[in-house]
Amino acid sequence: MSKCTAIPPLAQQTFSFCVENKLTALDQAVSDQFGQPFMDGGYFVVDSHLPTFKQTGLPQIRPFIRQLGTKTKPIVLKKQVRLINGKLVLPDKGATYICPMCGKVLHGNGDAAYDLYHLPLGDTYTKLQVSRPRLRCPGKDCPYNYTFEADFKVEGHMLTQQLEAFACDLLSQQMTLKDVAFITGLNQNVVKDIDKKRLEAKYTVNGKGKELIKPEKQSEFLGIDEFKLHNGRKYATVIIDLQTGHVLYLAHTKKKQVVYDFMDFVGEEWMKGVKAVSSDMNADYGDAFTERCPHIKVVYDHFHIVKNFNDNVVTKVRNEEIRRLTEEGDTEAANSLKGSKYVLMSNRETLEQKDKDAAEGKVLSKEGILFNGSEVTQKGGNLDWYRSIIRENDLLFTCDLVKEKLKFAYEADTELKMKRRINSIINTCESTGNRHFIWFANLLKNHYDGIIIHATYKISTGKVEGTNQMIKTLRRKSYGLPDDEYFFLKIMDASRR
């Protein structure tokens, strides 16, 4: 016995209305297009957004198989594609076309069809099979013939302009080529061509990809640094606007010529508005800027100076002290220095914060049941350990003194104060007689003007270092981009998100 379900009053009214009006507006539209009064269950009609494409039949679902991965590790993508048959509707239907070679009226010559990828629907790809009218010249000796092209087809690729726009939207959100290819059903190389075309339209003159557009706004402070481009000691240089973080220029190599090319690119008038440039300890960049634009001040970054001191003074002095104490037989003092590298390189505020976190029981890594991971908490006693080390070793005590003086120097608000404090650091280093301290004193002397000017222009290469990290992440996500021109455009676009 069949089960009966009562229809609520409102539903009864709706049902009665549908019975009385057998053809609703939607049914009528479907009837006009497909020649049947209604659609079967499981179908719904959506707008194709293609005014000149007329569907001529029901969609057909077919398997879609594509080989991904590599030759040694192939990956087979198995999905479905919805094939929709249709024909191209000419805007000037009934017009007479004349042969451009002999002047006779062209005759119809059947149709020619091609498949175009269109917007996916759910997890199913879409292909349009577009039938296009053909014309031929009736003249006996005239070979002229013509086939109409779909106005919604992308030039050079078998896809619709709507799908291209959809792919551009996904790419603008920093999705990888592989991910966009999976979503749209397009080949990864086609997606790359779409992305490069999009980037060239944004960052090249007239979108032709032949010449970069110049910066829209005047920059007062620039940052410059090199980054690793490929393995085999191949580097590139990036120049950014420190106020916005936008990448203004990229070029191969890390030579002075890059700076000259950048100046030629933006022009002398634009360079007159630049006040200072932040750089690492690479003197070539600074020299190139000041040679052509003497008004520009080169500021050497505080981070790189401290890093040089930690790497070339603190670390080396510590290692030598461990060897000396071991040779003298004082194994207890030598063992106290082992494992103290990062404690000695940290400032007091960091050590105090670590001790505070340890007192509060801060968890650095949670316990993992699945892989037997144990819980890791912050260890305390860092500041006491640091104090005991510098108390027992004169050279390491001097390291602590120099670090505090460096911090104090970079807090100066005038160049005169900065000079006095940097000179004090140089004297302290030279008074030790230690070769590592003397090396650092010479480093400060050789970059003296670029260090002192920080009191006037408090800028750093922090944003440049952040850009370098962004570049590394972009390259890793893409598993490498061999097309450097495309990679540089991707970097410029990512910096403007």
Entry keywords:
five-stranded mixed beta sheet; six-stranded mixed beta sheet; single chain; 19% strand; elongated; 497 residues; alpha+beta; Nucleotidyltransferase, domain 5; 4 domains; disordered N terminus
Describe the model.
The protein is of the alpha+beta class and 497 residues long. It has 4 domains: 9-45, no CATH class; 60-203, no CATH class; 221-301 and 460-494, 2-Layer Sandwich (Nucleotidyltransferase, domain 5), CATH 3.30.420; 303-455, no CATH class. Helix content is 44%, strand content 19%. It contains 19 helices and 13 strands. Strands 1, 2, 3, 4, 5 and 6 form a 6-stranded mixed beta sheet that branches. A 5-stranded mixed beta sheet has the order 9-8-7-10-11, sandwiched between helices. A two-stranded antiparallel ribbon has the order 12-13. It is elongated and about 105 Å long. The model is unreliable at 1-23 (pLDDT under 50).
Q: What's a quick, concise take on this entry?
A:
The chain has 19 helices and 13 strands. The chain has helices at residues 9-20, 25-34, 161-172, 177-184, 188-203, 257-266, 268-271, 283-292, 302-327, 331-337, 341-345, 348-359, 382-392, 394-409, 415-432, 435-446, 448-452, 462-477, 484-494, and strands at 53-55, 60-69, 74-88, 107-121, 124-136, 145-147, 221-230, 234-241, 247-252, 276-279, 297-300, 363-365, 376-377. The strands form 3 sheets. Strands 1, 2, 3, 4, 5 and 6 form a 6-stranded mixed sheet that branches. A 5-stranded mixed sheet has the order 9-8-7-10-11, with helices on both faces. A two-stranded antiparallel sheet has the order 12-13.
